[in-house]
Amino acid sequence: MTLLSVLMIGIGLSMDAFAVAVAKGMCTRGGKTITTALYLAFFFGLFQAMMPTIGYFAGIYFSDLIASIDHWIAFLLLAGIGINMMREAKAEEETVCEPLYLKQVIILAIATSIDALAIGISFAFLKLDSIWSAVAMIGITTFLLSFIAVFLGKWLGSYIEKYAQIFGGIVLIVIGLKILVEHLFLS
């Protein structure tokens, strides 16, 4: 898997966190924008990096058992996550402005990174050269996009939130198709 593919996966995975950060940015008052951006970006980036690591090591354990169908599993996981992201984007929810307590931020970070666990499993099946560079790229990408999203949320309002999830879903589906095509027709 190329670095560009990992970067695109990182962008796709970060779209849930991006959407939440936009929503929280819309609620930011006064001079708390930078603090809120750093707070959310840190936890979202951390959990987006931890979850694929956990998934990777769990996947390594099972990879020999299902090596002949690993490309189908990677495709189905990526496509399923992508379709779910687009479905969630269509179900518009009202933004709730509430304080950012550590417990709530951790719950949001876990909720927005569950799909990264499945990506980590697919990384194990794809036999990545370095899980550490992949998870670092995913974590840093999520950190940067979440940081920017808080400011975008403050500036743009709710218009961009739905489209970020749709974009992320499309990116994950395209990468899943690319993996499937490479394994079926180019190997």
From TrEMBL:
This is Putative manganese efflux pump MntP. Probably functions as a manganese efflux pump. It comes from the Bacteria. Pfam families: Mntp. It comes from Massilicoli timonensis. Keywords: Cell membrane, Ion transport, Manganese, Membrane, Transmembrane, Transmembrane helix, Transport. The chain crosses the membrane at residues 6-25, 37-59, 65-84, 105-125, 131-152, 164-186. It is a multi-pass membrane protein.
